[in-house]
Amino acid sequence: MISEPELVGGEAFDASEVLSDAPPPRPPRARRPWVWALGGAVLASAVWAGGLYAYGQRKDPGPDLGGYPTGVKLCEKAGLKALGGILGKRSEDGVGPEMDDPTVYETSCSMAFGDPDAGYSAQLSYTLHKVIDPGPEFPAQAKQYDLATPIGGLGEQAFFSDRGGDGGEIRVLDGQAEFELQIYRQYSTDEQGKPLGEGKAVDLSGIDVPMTQDLLALMEALRK
Hints:
Elements: H1 33-57, H2 74-77, H3 81-87, E1 90-95, E2 99-100, E3 104-113, E4 120-129, H4 138-144, E5 149-150, E6 157-161, E7 167-174, E8 177-185, H5 208-223
Antiparallel strand pairs: 1-3, 2-3, 3-4, 4-8, 5-6, 6-7, 7-8
Protein backbone atom coordinates (compact mmCIF):
# COMPACT_ATOMS: atom_id res chain seq x y z
CA MET A 1 0.00 0.00 0.00
CA ILE A 2 1.36 3.31 -1.05
CA SER A 3 0.74 6.18 1.31
CA GLU A 4 0.38 9.88 0.35
CA PRO A 5 3.71 11.57 0.10
CA GLU A 6 4.55 14.25 2.53
CA LEU A 7 6.43 17.40 1.68
CA VAL A 8 9.50 17.74 3.66
CA GLY A 9 9.47 20.97 5.54
CA GLY A 10 6.20 22.08 3.81
CA GLU A 11 2.50 21.92 4.30
CA ALA A 12 0.03 19.47 2.89
CA PHE A 13 -2.26 20.46 -0.02
CA ASP A 14 -5.53 22.12 0.96
CA ALA A 15 -8.29 19.66 0.37
CA SER A 16 -10.70 22.49 -0.63
CA GLU A 17 -8.73 23.42 -3.76
CA VAL A 18 -10.20 22.15 -7.01
CA LEU A 19 -8.10 21.91 -10.07
CA SER A 20 -9.86 22.85 -13.34
CA ASP A 21 -8.92 23.04 -16.99
CA ALA A 22 -10.96 26.29 -17.48
CA PRO A 23 -8.81 29.41 -17.97
CA PRO A 24 -8.93 32.04 -15.24
CA PRO A 25 -11.30 35.04 -15.78
CA ARG A 26 -9.84 38.10 -17.55
CA PRO A 27 -9.25 41.25 -15.54
CA PRO A 28 -11.74 44.13 -16.16
CA ARG A 29 -11.04 46.09 -19.30
CA ALA A 30 -9.66 49.54 -18.69
CA ARG A 31 -11.52 52.40 -20.41
CA ARG A 32 -9.50 54.39 -22.88
CA PRO A 33 -9.45 58.04 -21.76
CA TRP A 34 -8.81 59.35 -25.27
CA VAL A 35 -12.09 57.86 -26.50
CA TRP A 36 -14.03 59.86 -23.91
CA ALA A 37 -12.02 62.96 -24.68
CA LEU A 38 -12.81 62.60 -28.37
CA GLY A 39 -16.51 62.17 -27.62
CA GLY A 40 -16.51 65.31 -25.49
CA ALA A 41 -14.78 67.30 -28.22
CA VAL A 42 -17.33 66.16 -30.80
CA LEU A 43 -20.19 67.10 -28.48
CA ALA A 44 -18.68 70.53 -27.75
CA SER A 45 -18.16 71.11 -31.48
CA ALA A 46 -21.79 70.21 -32.19
CA VAL A 47 -23.01 72.59 -29.48
CA TRP A 48 -20.80 75.39 -30.83
CA ALA A 49 -21.99 74.80 -34.39
CA GLY A 50 -25.60 74.83 -33.23
CA GLY A 51 -25.06 78.11 -31.41
CA LEU A 52 -23.35 79.61 -34.45
CA TYR A 53 -26.24 78.57 -36.67
CA ALA A 54 -28.76 80.06 -34.26
CA TYR A 55 -26.75 83.29 -34.15
CA GLY A 56 -26.69 83.41 -37.94
CA GLN A 57 -30.44 82.96 -38.09
CA ARG A 58 -31.09 86.01 -35.92
CA LYS A 59 -32.14 88.95 -38.06
CA ASP A 60 -29.89 91.98 -37.82
CA PRO A 61 -32.14 94.91 -36.84
CA GLY A 62 -29.91 97.31 -38.77
CA PRO A 63 -29.17 100.91 -37.85
CA ASP A 64 -31.55 103.16 -35.95
CA LEU A 65 -33.53 105.13 -38.54
CA GLY A 66 -34.38 107.83 -36.01
CA GLY A 67 -38.10 107.71 -36.70
CA TYR A 68 -37.74 108.58 -40.39
CA PRO A 69 -40.26 106.64 -42.51
CA THR A 70 -40.55 105.23 -46.02
CA GLY A 71 -43.52 105.59 -48.36
CA VAL A 72 -43.50 109.38 -48.04
CA LYS A 73 -45.62 111.78 -50.09
CA LEU A 74 -42.89 114.38 -50.09
CA CYS A 75 -44.72 117.24 -51.78
CA GLU A 76 -47.50 116.98 -49.20
CA LYS A 77 -45.12 116.85 -46.25
CA ALA A 78 -42.97 119.74 -47.49
CA GLY A 79 -44.98 122.90 -46.94
CA LEU A 80 -42.02 125.24 -47.69
CA LYS A 81 -44.01 128.11 -46.19
CA ALA A 82 -40.96 130.23 -45.43
CA LEU A 83 -39.83 130.08 -49.06
CA GLY A 84 -43.34 130.80 -50.28
CA GLY A 85 -43.39 134.00 -48.23
CA ILE A 86 -40.33 135.24 -50.13
CA LEU A 87 -40.58 133.71 -53.60
CA GLY A 88 -44.34 134.00 -54.11
CA LYS A 89 -47.31 131.70 -54.17
CA ARG A 90 -46.62 128.01 -54.66
CA SER A 91 -48.32 127.16 -57.95
CA GLU A 92 -47.53 123.59 -58.99
CA ASP A 93 -45.91 120.37 -57.84
CA GLY A 94 -44.18 117.55 -59.64
CA VAL A 95 -43.61 114.13 -58.09
CA GLY A 96 -40.33 112.43 -58.92
CA PRO A 97 -39.55 108.71 -59.04
CA GLU A 98 -39.64 106.68 -55.83
CA MET A 99 -37.28 103.83 -54.91
CA ASP A 100 -37.94 101.52 -51.97
CA ASP A 101 -35.14 98.97 -51.71
CA PRO A 102 -34.13 96.89 -48.65
CA THR A 103 -30.98 99.02 -48.47
CA VAL A 104 -32.26 102.51 -49.28
CA TYR A 105 -35.42 104.54 -49.77
CA GLU A 106 -35.49 107.60 -52.03
CA THR A 107 -38.12 110.01 -53.27
CA SER A 108 -38.19 113.53 -54.69
CA CYS A 109 -40.50 116.29 -55.84
CA SER A 110 -40.43 119.74 -57.43
CA MET A 111 -42.41 122.96 -56.87
CA ALA A 112 -42.84 126.32 -58.57
CA PHE A 113 -43.20 129.70 -56.86
CA GLY A 114 -44.45 133.01 -58.23
CA ASP A 115 -44.95 133.57 -61.94
CA PRO A 116 -44.84 130.20 -63.78
CA ASP A 117 -42.79 131.77 -66.58
CA ALA A 118 -40.49 134.03 -64.60
CA GLY A 119 -40.64 132.78 -61.05
CA TYR A 120 -38.63 130.27 -59.04
CA SER A 121 -38.45 126.50 -58.81
CA ALA A 122 -37.51 124.18 -55.98
CA GLN A 123 -36.17 120.64 -56.15
CA LEU A 124 -36.39 118.53 -53.02
CA SER A 125 -35.11 115.00 -52.39
CA TYR A 126 -35.25 112.68 -49.40
CA THR A 127 -33.03 109.61 -48.99
CA LEU A 128 -33.17 107.14 -46.11
CA HIS A 129 -30.16 104.85 -45.82
CA LYS A 130 -31.37 101.59 -44.24
CA VAL A 131 -28.05 99.75 -44.03
CA ILE A 132 -24.93 101.87 -44.48
CA ASP A 133 -23.80 104.84 -42.41
CA PRO A 134 -23.70 107.85 -44.78
CA GLY A 135 -21.93 110.05 -42.22
CA PRO A 136 -18.28 109.49 -43.22
CA GLU A 137 -18.98 110.18 -46.92
CA PHE A 138 -21.30 113.14 -46.49
CA PRO A 139 -18.71 115.97 -46.21
CA ALA A 140 -16.84 114.65 -49.25
CA GLN A 141 -20.02 114.56 -51.31
CA ALA A 142 -20.93 118.10 -50.24
CA LYS A 143 -17.49 119.30 -51.27
CA GLN A 144 -17.88 117.55 -54.63
CA TYR A 145 -21.00 119.66 -55.30
CA ASP A 146 -19.30 122.90 -54.17
CA LEU A 147 -21.27 123.13 -50.94
CA ALA A 148 -18.66 124.78 -48.76
CA THR A 149 -20.63 126.77 -46.16
CA PRO A 150 -21.60 124.77 -43.06
CA ILE A 151 -25.04 125.41 -41.56
CA GLY A 152 -25.37 124.95 -37.80
CA GLY A 153 -28.47 123.71 -36.02
CA LEU A 154 -29.74 121.76 -39.00
CA GLY A 155 -29.47 117.99 -38.58
CA GLU A 156 -26.10 116.48 -37.75
CA GLN A 157 -24.33 118.01 -40.76
CA ALA A 158 -25.48 120.59 -43.30
CA PHE A 159 -23.74 122.52 -46.08
CA PHE A 160 -24.94 125.39 -48.27
CA SER A 161 -24.06 127.22 -51.49
CA ASP A 162 -25.73 130.43 -52.72
CA ARG A 163 -25.28 129.50 -56.41
CA GLY A 164 -24.13 132.93 -57.45
CA GLY A 165 -27.12 134.80 -56.07
CA ASP A 166 -29.60 133.16 -58.48
CA GLY A 167 -30.60 130.47 -56.03
CA GLY A 168 -29.22 128.21 -53.38
CA GLU A 169 -28.67 124.60 -52.41
CA ILE A 170 -28.57 122.89 -49.02
CA ARG A 171 -27.65 119.31 -48.25
CA VAL A 172 -28.52 117.94 -44.81
CA LEU A 173 -27.66 114.72 -43.02
CA ASP A 174 -29.62 113.74 -39.93
CA GLY A 175 -28.71 110.23 -38.79
CA GLN A 176 -29.62 107.89 -41.64
CA ALA A 177 -31.73 110.51 -43.46
CA GLU A 178 -30.36 112.80 -46.14
CA PHE A 179 -32.08 115.84 -47.65
CA GLU A 180 -31.29 118.07 -50.60
CA LEU A 181 -33.12 121.31 -51.38
CA GLN A 182 -32.34 123.48 -54.41
CA ILE A 183 -33.84 126.85 -55.31
CA TYR A 184 -33.21 128.49 -58.66
CA ARG A 185 -34.72 131.18 -60.84
CA GLN A 186 -36.64 130.18 -63.94
CA TYR A 187 -35.80 131.77 -67.27
CA SER A 188 -38.45 131.21 -69.92
CA THR A 189 -38.28 132.92 -73.34
CA ASP A 190 -40.39 132.98 -76.48
CA GLU A 191 -39.27 131.99 -79.97
CA GLN A 192 -37.50 135.33 -80.40
CA GLY A 193 -35.64 134.92 -77.12
CA LYS A 194 -37.66 137.53 -75.27
CA PRO A 195 -38.41 136.84 -71.59
CA LEU A 196 -41.85 135.52 -70.80
CA GLY A 197 -43.79 136.65 -67.78
CA GLU A 198 -43.31 139.65 -65.58
CA GLY A 199 -41.85 138.03 -62.50
CA LYS A 200 -39.98 140.33 -60.22
CA ALA A 201 -36.46 139.29 -59.30
CA VAL A 202 -35.98 138.54 -55.61
CA ASP A 203 -32.79 139.13 -53.67
CA LEU A 204 -31.64 135.62 -52.76
CA SER A 205 -28.55 136.61 -50.79
CA GLY A 206 -30.08 135.33 -47.54
CA ILE A 207 -32.06 132.45 -49.00
CA ASP A 208 -30.33 129.96 -46.68
CA VAL A 209 -32.45 131.22 -43.75
CA PRO A 210 -35.92 130.30 -45.12
CA MET A 211 -34.49 127.14 -46.65
CA THR A 212 -33.21 126.09 -43.23
CA GLN A 213 -36.56 126.88 -41.62
CA ASP A 214 -38.47 124.83 -44.17
CA LEU A 215 -36.12 121.85 -43.89
CA LEU A 216 -36.42 121.84 -40.10
CA ALA A 217 -40.22 121.82 -40.45
CA LEU A 218 -40.04 118.97 -42.98
CA MET A 219 -37.76 116.86 -40.75
CA GLU A 220 -40.14 117.30 -37.84
CA ALA A 221 -43.16 116.42 -39.99
CA LEU A 222 -41.54 113.21 -41.24
CA ARG A 223 -40.71 111.98 -37.74
CA LYS A 224 -44.28 112.36 -36.45
